[in-house]
């Protein structure tokens, strides 16, 4: 997972508080620059003594003259002694500390630099530097260009300023300039600082960090040797030596020893994290890397942390961590660019992905070989959420209700009325009218007898035969609303949605106050995936039901109101529920389980499902959609939904087969078929479908993205960028879909 070459794993040494570094340095420079107070020379002291002696000659008292003379001599002796003690030239101690090794080329560059920037550094305090404060404010707002401009106008280009400028260039993606400031200019500044102040310990430590980050291991070792002669604790030396030996000599024994002694040392925790990462112990690696990174950003450790996130499939966290991986560590920069490119591509941050890619001015196959692109599916939601949004649970509830719907009994009451009417016409001397009435009554009577046969077939579960008899009855009384309704629900039970829908529309227009057709339309719309229309029909049913007087409401119609109320609001009408028969209460529990996605309950209640002719394997929603696809053969919505379910279950062949027979494919259909064919091992067919998707929907991104992923898997990164440019140039939109072709990034 992580490359084993020892020179590839760069871990930055502890990032000491730069502000404290600068304050200490400023104090040291201030001490060196303070001019010494002017003191009297030997000649001046002697002249002063002579004047005292001459002035004494005017005294009459000889004793006083002697006393004054002796005092003057004593004063001269004390003054000379004091001058030599405090201001005389001191001899250099024998063990003189050596200055750091500075190469000739560096010296030449240093001569060209204005030494006054360091030697006359004034008193630099970023806390009172207006430019520095403004830079911080601009940086917080994300205005990095303006912040960099302010920092360059600060008092001097100090260590902290260089770091801040470099870090903002990193944010802007300008790695060359970032490296110039974080590594090159900082290194030159530190070299000049310690040349002029050999006791600048923090300068040596930071220089060691830069040498290690830049893989200048010999120079780093020289700095370590120098630090041994400075006032630095053995702990710091041992930690730095362990870090050096781990990277350069591949020795990890000291790391474990020091981990016990210094459990909070970031450098040791960072090394432990890297060691565990090499062993693929991701949890331990993450634990120690977090401890190391928490005090301050360490570039190489952020890179290792990104690798852990990717291995765990947490690309969003990797995306946040990757920009920090360049900080103080420009090793493996090409590979880091590729890693960032793939992570941002995975998260569909196309502009950022493109920017990281073009940071590499040419293709580096060695870096690309570290990554393996494995095409896969990305789901923007869980399957459970998908089921609810697609309304599969309510579709199942509607189907249970459909199986429960019963034909309305048709009696001879209307026929007897027709006979009486015929008799009346006969008595009035209207034989022609009487004949028509008798014929209509005879046809109606035939219809009643035929429906009796239809009802017996329905009771036996012979739904197809029952439909035929109801249709025969309807031919004899084709305007009768009860017969129309019975034929419509029999069509629905036989899963002929289109014909049932036409009859329900006829009933709504001809008999608008008849409530039951609205229940039928609810089932039709729900099966067709039109949830809003389905809910509207159910509400209309309840409104119509309330408008009818209670004595005229059929019991089955009233019971239907209990189910409708629950389906709409997921609440129980307690009064209505009490009136239900035990069988109807059982039915209510089935509908409740369907709406609440309780498949376990449905599977337990299989026997009751058989009673209402709902023969379905309720184990998951894919099998439920298979049932619907089998029953409602011509539903485009069901075909597309079943294909999605198969894609969720990674059954790719079944996914594209489920979409066969759709009358007119749209761009999304072609895209999903391309996904299914590609993941099933047919890239040429997949590419053909992706092309069709592009031609069908020219303003959509998904198919271009799929083609880019295909190019990435083949290693043709130029091909990837070709499609990225198209997407960025056209500013395309994404399909309104829950399923995307994506990829997993495997690290070799």
Overview of this protein structure:
The structure is a single chain. This protein is mainly alpha-helical. The chain has four domains: 6-21 and 100-126 and 150-162 and 174-370, Serine Threonine Protein Phosphatase 5, Tetratricopeptide repeat (Alpha Horseshoe); 35-87; 387-621, Serine Threonine Protein Phosphatase 5, Tetratricopeptide repeat, CATH 1.25.40; 633-747, Alpha Horseshoe (Serine Threonine Protein Phosphatase 5, Tetratricopeptide repeat). The chain contains 41 helices and two strands. The protein has a two-stranded antiparallel sheet with strand order 1-2. Helix 13 packs across helix 14 (266-278). It is elongated. The protein starts with 17 loop residues before the first helix and ends with a strand. 36% of the residues are buried. The model is unreliable at 1-102 and 114-124 (pLDDT under 50).
How are the SSEs placed, and which strands pair?
Blueprint: H1 18-33, H2 42-56, H3 62-87, H4 104-112, H5 116-119, H6 130-141, H7 144-152, H8 159-172, H9 175-196, H10 201-213, H11 217-227, H12 234-248, H13 253-261, H14 266-278, H15 282-293, H16 299-311, H17 315-321, H18 333-346, H19 350-358, H20 365-368, E1 371-379, H21 383-390, H22 392-404, H23 413-427, H24 431-459, H25 463-476, H26 481-493, H27 497-510, H28 516-527, H29 531-547, H30 555-569, H31 574-579, H32 582-595, H33 599-604, H34 606-611, H35 621-631, H36 636-648, H37 652-658, H38 667-679, H39 683-696, H40 702-714, H41 717-730, E2 739-747
């Amino acid at each position: 997972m992580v490359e084993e070459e020892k020179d590839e794993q760069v871990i930055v040494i502890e990032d000491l508080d730069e502000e404290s570094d600068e304050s200490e340095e400023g104090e040291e420079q201030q001490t060196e620059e303070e001019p010494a107070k002017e003191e009297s020379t030997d000649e001046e002291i002697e002249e002063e003594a002579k004047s005292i002696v001459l002035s004494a000659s005017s005294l009459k008292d000889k004793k006083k003259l002697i006393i004054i003379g002796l005092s003057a001599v004593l004063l001269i002796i004390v003054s000379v002694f004091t001058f030599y003690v405090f201001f005389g030239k001191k001899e250099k101690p024998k063990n003189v500390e050596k200055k750091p090794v500075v190469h000739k080329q560096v010296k030449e560059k240093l001569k060209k630099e204005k030494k006054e920037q360091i030697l006359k550094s004034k008193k630099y305090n970023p806390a009172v530097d207006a430019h520095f404060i403004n830079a911080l404010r601009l940086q917080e707002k994300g205005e990095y260009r303006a912040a960099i401009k302010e920092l360059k106008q600060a008092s001097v280009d100090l260590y902290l300023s260089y770091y801040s400028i470099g870090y903002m260039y990193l944010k802007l993606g300008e790695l060359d300039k970032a490296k110039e400031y974080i590594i090159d200019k900082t290194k030159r500044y530190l070299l000049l600082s310690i040349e002029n102040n050999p006791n600048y310990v923090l300068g040596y430590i930071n220089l060691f960090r830069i040498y290690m980050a830049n893989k200048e291991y010999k120079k780093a070792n020289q700095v370590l040797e120098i630090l041994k002669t400075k006032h630095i604790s053995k702990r710091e030396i041992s930690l730095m030596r362990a870090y050096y030996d781990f990277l350069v000599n591949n020795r990890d024994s000291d790391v474990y020893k020091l981990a016990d002694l210094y459990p909070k040392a970031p450098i040791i925790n960072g090394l432990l994290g890297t060691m565990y990462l090499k062993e693929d112990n991701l949890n331990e690696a993450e634990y120690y890397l977090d401890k190391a990174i928490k005090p301050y950003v360490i570039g190489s450790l952020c890179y290792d942390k990104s690798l852990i996130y990717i291995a765990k499939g947490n690309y969003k966290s990797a995306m946040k961590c990757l920009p920090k991986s360049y900080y103080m560590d420009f090793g493996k920069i090409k590979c880091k660019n590729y890693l960032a490119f793939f992570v941002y591509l995975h998260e569909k941050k196309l502009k950022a992905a493109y920017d990281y890619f073009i940071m590499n001015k040419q293709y580096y196959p060695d870096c690309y070989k570290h990554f393996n692109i494995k095409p896969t599916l990305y789901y923007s939601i869980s399957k459970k959420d998908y089921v609810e949004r697609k309304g599969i649970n309510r579709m199942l509830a509607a189907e249970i209700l459909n199986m429960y719907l019963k034909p309305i009994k048709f009696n001879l009451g209307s026929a007897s009325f027709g006979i009486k009417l015929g008799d009346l016409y006969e008595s009035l001397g209207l034989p022609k009218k009487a004949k028509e009435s008798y014929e209509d009554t005879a046809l109606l009577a035939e219809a009643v007898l035929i429906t009796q046969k239809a009802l017996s077939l329905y009771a036996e579960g012979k739904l197809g035969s029952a439909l035929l008899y109801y249709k025969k009855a309807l031919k004899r009384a084709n305007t009768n609303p009860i017969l129309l309704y019975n034929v419509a629900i029999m069509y629905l039970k036989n899963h002929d949605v289109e014909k049932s829908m036409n009859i329900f529309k006829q009933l709504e227009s001809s008999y608008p106050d008849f409530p039951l057709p609205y229940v039928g339309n609810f089932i039709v719309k729900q099966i067709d995936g039109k949830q809003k229309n389905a809910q509207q029909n159910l509400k209309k049913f309840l409104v119509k039901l309330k408008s009818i007087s209670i004595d005229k409401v059929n019991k089955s119609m009233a019971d239907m109101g209990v189910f409708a109320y629950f389906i709409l609001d997921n609440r129980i009408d307690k009064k209505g529920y009490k009136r239900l028969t035990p069988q109807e209460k059982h039915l209510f529990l089935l509908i409740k389980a369907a709406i609440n996605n309780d498949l376990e309950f449905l599977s337990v209640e299989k026997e009751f499902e058989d009673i209402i002719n709902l023969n379905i394997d309720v184990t998951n929603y894919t099998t439920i959609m298979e049932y619907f696809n089998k029953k409602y053969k011509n539903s485009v919505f069901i075909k597309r939904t079943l294909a999605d379910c198969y894609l969720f279950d990674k059954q790719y062949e079944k996914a594209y087969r489920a979409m066969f027979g759709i009358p007119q494919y749209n761009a999304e259909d072609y895209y999903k078929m391309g996904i299914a064919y590609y993941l099933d091992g047919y890239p040429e067919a997949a590419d053909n479908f992706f092309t069709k998707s592009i031609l069908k929907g020219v303003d959509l991104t998904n198919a271009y993205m799929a083609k880019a992923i295909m190019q990435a898997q083949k290693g043709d990164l130029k091909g990837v960028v070709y499609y990225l440019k198209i997407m960025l140039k056209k500013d395309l939109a994404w399909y309104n879909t829950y399923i995307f072709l994506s990829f997993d990034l495997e690290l070799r």
